[in-house]
């Protein structure tokens, strides 16, 4: 994830937040994710997609980033 954050940080905001920090529990509930995952949002905060779990791999991260970047066009 850190490589992708470095590569795309000028175009999108990528945050890795530990479950339990800040309002992460509420965000997971809104996204209908049980405990861990990716929540991708647009600039207005609308959820674009979610990925359940924490073993999704680099390709899934790239797929989510691509989706976000394509929505910005």
Describe what is shown at a glance.
40% of the residues lie in helices and 15% in strands. By secondary structure, it is α+β, with helices and mostly antiparallel strands.
Number of strands: 2
Q: Tally the helices.
A: 3
Arithmetic mean of pLDDT: 90
Uncertain stretches: none
What would you note in describing this structure?
The chain is of the alpha+beta class and 73 residues long. The protein has one domain (2-71). The chain is built from 3 helices and 2 strands. The chain has helices at 2-8, 24-30, 57-71; strands at 37-41, 47-52. The longest helix has 15 residues, at 57-71. It is globular. The mean pLDDT is 90.
Write the layout of secondary structure elements.
Blueprint: H1 2-8, H2 24-30, E1 37-41, E2 47-52, H3 57-71
Question: Which descriptors apply to this entry?
Answer:
73 residues; alpha+beta; two-stranded antiparallel sheet; 3 helices; 2 strands
């Amino acid at each position: 994830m850190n490589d992708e954050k470095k590569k795309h940080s000028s175009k999108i905001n990528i945050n890795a937040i530990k479950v339990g920090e800040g309002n992460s529990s509420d965000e997971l509930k809104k996204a209908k994710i049980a405990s861990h995952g990716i929540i991708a949002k647009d600039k207005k905060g609308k959820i674009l997609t979610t990925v359940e779990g924490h073993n999704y791999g680099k390709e899934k991260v790239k797929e989510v980033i691509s989706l976000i970047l394509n929505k910005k066009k």
